């Protein structure tokens, strides 16, 4: 072995070692994405299918460094989510670097429901979620409530969440919290699909078509599998637009960006 070869060999070994250390050092930390919300986000039992919460397909779009825990539950408001201890499940399990996606409003805004909240209560409960998540060094993301399928006589989508979505938008600015305006974006999606085709996004079933709903079901709030996937894709696209670090953990090519609604 020449003198030059003797010198070259340890240099190569050092280079290989440096690459190995670098690969180990930059291995992404495993994180959990927590979902806090109501029935439009929640996992469903088999007896409820084909009703699908958008949190169900959402889980499938991330790489192996992410675990999605869906704590959303049917019928929950910010008040009942706190009272029953569902939020505590999240704060007890949350760690630095985790994300928590927070979508409420459907049940908070209906004054006849026992778990309804006043606008002030709604604001304060959401602010509590943000504050307690940040205390655990997690990243909260506010989401406005997803639109109901509600068209006027001229075929224009009518909003049903204006007051409570406005509270969320203002709080996002106040608390400097990332915001996904799912209310506005899902209304846009519904408008693209139109009055009749938008039924395919929701749990809209005719009598005799599904054994879980023998009498049929015309549900303009909860989603079909396709509708849930489309709502999840809106959220995922906005994670990218917001340039959250979480975007780098979305599986590449898992869905197309900026494709017209009718062909996705």
UniProtKB/TrEMBL annotation:
Keywords: Hydrolase, Signal
The protein, known as: Lysophospholipase L1-like esterase
Family: Belongs to the 'GDSL' lipolytic enzyme family.
Gene3D superfamilies: SGNH hydrolase
Secretion signal span: 1-25
Limits of the SGNH hydrolase-type esterase domain: 37-229
InterPro entries the record matches: RhgT-like, SGNH_hydro, SGNH_hydro_sf
Species, as recorded: Mucilaginibacter yixingensis
